[in-house]
Amino acid sequence: MMGYQNDWKKLVVGTEHMVPTIGGKRVAVVNFDHAATTSPLHGVMERIFHFSEVYSSVHRGLGYKSMVSSDVYESGRIRLMRFVGADVKRYTLIYTKHTTESLNLLAHIFGERLDRERDVILVSEMEHLANYLPWRMVGQVDIVPVDEKGRLSCDVLETMLMRYGGRVKVVCVTGASNVTGYTNPLGKIARIVHRYGAMIVVDGAQMAPHTRVDMMGRTAEETVDFFAFSAHKMYAPFGCGALIGRKDVLADASPLLVGGGVARFVTHTSLDWNEVPHKDEAGTPNVIGVTAWTEAIRILEEVGRAELAKWEAYLLDSLVRELKGIDGIKLYGGEKDCVSLVSFALDGIDHRTVSRILSYEDGIAVRSGMFCAHPYVVRLLGLSEDDIDYYRNHHEVPLPGLVRVSISFCNTEEDIERLVRLLRHIVRHKRAYLEKYSTMAEHEESAFGQLKLKQRILP
Ligand code: PLP
After folding, report:
1. How far is the CA of 384 from the centre of ligand 1 (A)?
2. CATH of the domain at 87
3. Antiparallel, parallel or unpaired: β 364-365 and 30-31
4. 183 lines ligand 1 (CB under 6 A)
5. What's the 3-state SS for 218-229?
6. How far does the centroid of ligand 1 lie from the alpha carbon of residue 315, in Å?
């Protein structure tokens, strides 16, 4: 045990919520699905409540409330840029809905700049689809393969950059994988990428919640050109995301979404765009999302981000040690330099059944599947071309995948113990669980749903 206790569980809404189990009993929820999304902090909810008093339309009015709202919105931009160490003079921040929208917008912008025939976009094999598919839509993509453990190698990346001899314009990497938790050395990657005249795009969705981000790095060569992240993975789930990046590149492009706010002056025969970032923020701005996000950051910094991360690392380490002792579990990631998540496969029980058992039997929420990182999971599982063809041609067969446990500072040692205890029980009574869950008729599962409804989902 770590020798100190904390009450960080109390910072987050809903951590003591009671949920039904299949036996009819209600238990306190255990949430290990924080990599997907996080519940709000209590302080964020309070902030939203107070801010609502002055909530009004941003940039559209000269009423007092509108001016306050505009101020909150604009100062949030600077606050978020400082949070990731961006140079506020040379960089700008475009508010979006989430990381996915940020990366789609950025790919659209590069799509206008790139020569489709000649230019190449390199995407690491460990990317979430949010940092892969948008690039496929706009240009020639080549994949930087990971090794059999799922790690990205700087040498492999450099070899590819060298081989393309200056044709690579963009390199897309994640700050941290949402499947294995592996982190990438962004400063080192940026140095390599810049040496070959390309720009680096970082998907920060899993990195920003757990580790310090320094977009400017230690030297000019180490700067990250573009960084995307989401508020809902940082305890402020109110529909806000951001793309932070070089003003010189972002300023030139035409907007992806158009409508109110994007143009300075429009007639039937002329159109003058507003300046970046406003030209890329069509529609009514989400100032509630912004104030929620900046308040979440304020609270996390006040508690101490390094302390929170230490606790998450401790919990991950305890979990991984326990999982290694369970027969038939194969781990993916969860190592020392990982953010606080790990995936695993359990011999003889498919990923979806494992997560159903955990949820239905003891209210433990994990995630299973391919986590929107299909090519990466395919690589980790070692699927062959024949396997892939088989799954593509048999829609009735569930896709393979893994179980992911993602930890937050609001988890406790008891949460880990509950998960490990049930996993051990599953392994010891595998056949019984398999029988129960393979023969569980649809109506019984929906009975579980009805049970939830009968017991009222909300307290
Ligand atoms: N990138 C990574 C690594 C993620 O884990 C996720 C979400 O799980 C995303 C991108 C997409 O984030 P969002 O759904 O907030 O756009």
Report:
1. 27
2. 3.40.640.10
3. parallel
4. no
5. CCHHHCCCEEEE
6. 23
